[in-house]
Amino acid sequence: MGRTDVTRLIGLLTAATVAGASLVAGAEPGEAVTPAQTTLTTIPSDPYRLSDNGTFDTYGERIAGLETRVTQASAAEVFADANREARGLCHATGVTGATGFCWNSGDDGTPEWYPQGITASWDATGDGSYAGHRAILVSWYNTDDKGVRVSFVDYDDPAAPRYRHVLLVEPTSTDDFRAVNIHAGGLAWYGDHLYVVDTSRGIRVFDLRTVWRTEGDASKDRIGLGSDGRYYAHDYRYVVPQVGAYTQTGGCVRPPDSLDQPLCYSYLAVDRSTSPPSLLTGEYYDGVPGARLVRWLLDTDTGLLTVDSAGTVAADAAYRSPHTNLQGAVSHDDTFLMVRSRGRNTGGLLYRGQVGVASSSSALPIGPEDISYEADSGRAWTHTEYPGSRVVFSVPDAMG
């Protein structure tokens, strides 16, 4: 049977089987198939590559021009200017020993913004603080094309967190910018850089050393350069501009017909246990198992992804999950935590597994999303997305 025929067979089996089908661990993409896998398996990482395509230079030129026109600020100023107070754990998590907080009532209930990605200062630095703060960042996407906002949560005092929303923007020229209209399903913070997944393309990069202050706007409609020569951001007072991007060739399909097809970038997390530290990206498949988890090494000198001699970012490792509907995944040492959602009426699940070992699971509340691991405390942090029941919380002893 030729490669094309096998690839077609894989696609048919995946679509037709309730439990899904998977390739044999370690097999070449498009070769043998076997009944649905029950454990996390390794797969070849060779097909997965990213490139910055000169975006860091392009955005660098635009940012240099804009910084002669905008009001510059800093991450430290954002934390100091926090204008919202979080509440204690106002919604039940069902997790024994959970810690965390709820957003204020307006953010808890808004149908216009949905929280998605989560990362924290323990991902960013070795000592777990950034700009003098212990902090949590959460991304939200807007339902009316007003972009992506990130909540900068000052978590110095867990009993009284304070936060402010900041809008992510993309420089379009040396004198203007626009909102970043993506789903922002995953967020990762390493050093000064904030990584945000762009589902079919790859990963967008922002630098927290570059923060701009913008004007208030009661209409909440203006973005970028206004007719009055001032800069606006849908009434958000701070923006962080995109500084680069890592993209793949071709868009993604969920699920793919074969493992060598482009990835979907649904979520990501930092793993500081690898040497060097790495990012783990993953896919969301609705009702179908087999999501690919892919590891990308970080350069500890630059805080960016490691580029090979060919000028590309080559995946360091890749895995395939037996679980469906994954919204987040993080790894530490040899253990993987994977978050599964099960709709608006059923609680989610947290899977704990290793390659070749059946996963255990524990209950999460309805609507769990991305995940971050705080190694010093052994807690995994996640959060829920649905209006009226949003909570940011930690799971103790998460890695077992």
TrEMBL record:
Source domain of life: Bacteria
Signal peptide (residue range): 1-27
Keywords for the protein's UniProt record, in alphabetical order: Signal
Name of this chain's protein: Secreted protein
Organism listed in the record: Actinoalloteichus caeruleus DSM 43889
